[in-house]
Amino acid sequence: MPFSGNPLDRASNQRRDADWLTSLHGGPQSRYLAFHRLNPLARRTDSIELLWLDADVLRHLAEDSQPFLLGIQDGVAHFAVDLSHLDDPVSELGLDEAEFTETRGAAARLPAGDVGIVAHGRALIEWHRRHRYCGVCGSLTEVRDGGSMRKCESCGQEHFPRTDPVVIMVVWTGDKCILGRQKAWAPGFHSALAGFIDQGETIEEAVAREVLEEVGLEVDHVEYHASQPWPFPSSLMIGCFAHATSDQETVDPVELESATWFTRDQIRAAYEDPRGQHGFNVPGSIAIAHHLIKDWAFQTTDDHTAV
Ligand SMILES: [Zn+2]
Known about the structure:
binds zinc ion, alpha+beta, globular, 22% helix
């Protein structure tokens, strides 16, 4: 699953030790992954790989910025740094054959573990950018634990990086499933229904509510299938299969332009021949929706009849 498989050890316990963190900062072995406006630095070659910098990059950080510890691999500390304040960081750092690469495009081309690291670094940098001030008293907060917490010294409140859970579901009955499309999407593009989990709600309850809101269908069985970190900016996609009690949908025009039932055969044909003329498109392979719809279509009906 793209954006999963981060190989770094987050060192959650060790990072509470300020002396240990200090020994890593600027250390000769430490490696730094730079982000510019949330895009990671990559080496420009025939293929693509992340370009890790040495401690020299620290001279270029903004005055109020600092590296965030992503984790440890083979005894080496790996940090994320934000260079968004620079207009042209590739030139200012004197880098050759390097570029800040758009995350979605890079996700389809980078090695799997690298994409997981990008997911963490991107979400973490964006969370720090949005949470400089305490939500309780409004004072400036300070980075703690290498970036896995911000503390307000004024009121004592601790703030932790947030992840927003989203349910995304293939809603099916019999041999067909319903996919939605939004007006802004490219012609023919369809995807699984999705929505944020509300407070005080289970995964299953969120699936049932979102399906009812978006297409007016009731579901009587929800089955968890897979999850995916989605760092735009900080979601966790929770993929499910949901069995609908009828196929009489009523589309909410605020949420969707339309919703359409597709048979397994139609969907299988679209995956087997992506360039063919099927009258609809499914999401690309970096999105969990791609895998969720595919897994539903290519499994036998028997796999999903336990209602
Ligand atoms: Zn405070």
